Amino acid sequence: MQPEFPEIVAHRGASADRAEHTIGAYRLAVEQGADALECDVRLTRDGTLVCVHDRTVDRTSNGRGPVSTATAAHLSTLDFGSWHPGSAAGPAEERGLLTLTALLELVAESGVRLFVETKHPVRGGGKVESAVVAELARFGDAAVTVMSFSATAVRRVRALAPEVPTVLLLSRLGTDRHDGSLPGYADITGPGVHLLRDDPGYVARARERGHDTYCWTVDDPADIRLCRDLGVRYVATNRPAATRAVLGS
Fold first, then answer.
1. DSSP character for 67?
2. 3-state DSSP call for residue 36?
3. Which domain holds residue 186?
């Protein structure tokens, strides 16, 4: 029996076509038919959750310095899109700082799922998970999954909000994960696609233990087909439209 197509998760939005973590990238992802969106979140000095992958804003904005030592007001003056050819000519409002609140509003309007990754290590420690859970409580109807490479962070989310699905992201399969098992506070396994290339049987082992698979970051057509054939549930990609085309071919 042919496995069902995986659900397409727009990694940092349609980030091959627009600057990552900008509202323009996420709006385009929705237009391209993404089933879900993915974002990274960090806390500013004054406690605002913002969608930024790196510890600093140096790579993705015209500013410099760590997110954790800046205020949201300061970050809102920066341009987070002009570095990307697909965003440079777009409206200024689509290149500004994106807060988790604004992204959740888009999710609520569009009805897609959102995967929120908390970054670690960070200056604030567990404050980021507490802030995420508090923000999600304001959007009770939104379908949100929280994930992290930090097992401690995933455990915090489960303790704070047992009803919120969680993903434990994996960059390697140690002896404690090779059999497909996860700790009780993690619902979904999150291997990188390099792990599935090396060990395609992992998806089936995880499924036998009751865990769906979220795979990152899948752009190559051969990798997309591999995930489809293995029965991966969620495929995180920078190219939602192109990934949809491969899955339909």
1. G
2. strand
3. 7-54+98-247
Is residue 70 a part of any domain in this protein? Answer: no
Q: What are phi and psi of 57, to 5 degrees?
A: -95, 10
User: What distance in Å separates the CA atoms of residue 240 and residue 215, rounded to the nearest whole number?
Assistant: 14
42: nearest Cα among 98, 108, 114: 98
77 occurs within a structural domain: no
Is 176 part of any domain? yes
Q: Any idea which of 52-56, 58-62, 113-117, 174-178 has the lowest mean pLDDT?
A: 174-178
Collect all residues with Cβ–Cβ distance below 8 Å to 50 and sequence separation of at least 6: 41, 42, 43, 44, 67, 72, 75, 97, 98, 99, 100
Distance CA 14, CA 26 (A): 6
Catalytic residue check, 21: no
Number of H helices, E strands in the chain: 10, 9
- Per the CB < 8 A criterion, the answer to whether 170 and 150 are in contact is no
Longest dimension (CA), the chain: 54
Say what the pTM is.
0.97
CATH of the domain at 183: 3.20.20.190
Q: Which of 11, 21, 84, 211 is catalytic?
A: 11
Exactly one of 21, 53, 178, 211 is catalytic; name it.
53
pLDDT tens per residue across span 164-177: 999 999 999 999 89
11 is catalytic: yes
Pairing of strands 144-148, 49-50: unpaired
Number of domains into which the chain is organized: 1
